[in-house]
Amino acid sequence: MTETYELFAIKYAHHDRDATANFIDDCDPHEGNMPLEYYVWIAINENRTVLIDTGFNAKAAKERGRELIRCPAESLKLVGADANEIEDIIITHLHYDHVGNFDLFPKAKFHLQDKEMQFATGRYMRHKTLRHSFDIEHVTGMVREVYKERVIFHDGDTDLFPGIKLHFIGGHTMGMQSVTVETKRGRVVVASDASHLYHNMWDENPFRTVFNIGDMMEGHDKLRVLAGDDQDLIVPGHDPQVLDFYPAPSPDLEGIVVRLDVPPKK
Questions:
Q1: Distance separating alpha carbons of residues 223 and 169, to the nearest angstrom
Q2: Minimal CA–CA distance to 260: which of 2, 35, 34, 11?
Q3: How is the chain split into domains, by residue range?
Q4: What is the pTM of this model?
Q5: In a 10 Å sphere around its CB, with 0-12 CB exposed, 13-18 middle and 19+ buried, how is residue 163 labelled?
Q6: Are β-strands 109-113 and 151-154 bridged in parallel, bridged antiparallel, or unpaired?
Q7: CATH class of the domain comprising 6-259
């Protein structure tokens, strides 16, 4: 029997950037500033709490010129969760902004695609362009977690828990995975970096950081299939519009946390 979850996106960081940095092809309709927001996502019901990604820390923010607004692990308190008690974390991929802070979750098991560990530790990391978004300390740290028996590997699509599924995508990285979560409004597709922005999908113009463009484009199609007739069920990984489209759980969390388990406002 499936289960449904409350599902939240929590903003923890921000980066101002030009629109041209967000698309492979020319993007005349989107010239000018097009910032990225950085999120972690969390699914909660009476049986379990599942975190999707762990964000980055102050050191990474300084090194990469990002604005860290709040510690992702501490921010879980905003929705009643405790980093010290989280038992399952889905790592969508091993880029610095999705796997940093993994050491702040003492009880967690980390769910990762086989191909992502292969990618982050294999031959492609010889190339600066492909390793730019990885942090060697995160990668070697995750290898240590393997030896501690805290990493659970997955080979493709997986029914992880009732109502939560992993979907192998590829493209952005070799082992990129997205997550579907059953909610009261339907099956929400947490794309993570399978599509950074709504316009990456809408305009069929992928994000610049990519391992395989063809797989990324096919991944956009897979996201659409997963969402079915309601494309509003797709939630991209870094789009500021997510904060505009969805309601906050309470007025004091406006612009910080949004509920993805309810329909968008527009």
A1: 9
A2: 11
A3: 6-259
A4: 0.97
A5: buried
A6: parallel
A7: alpha beta
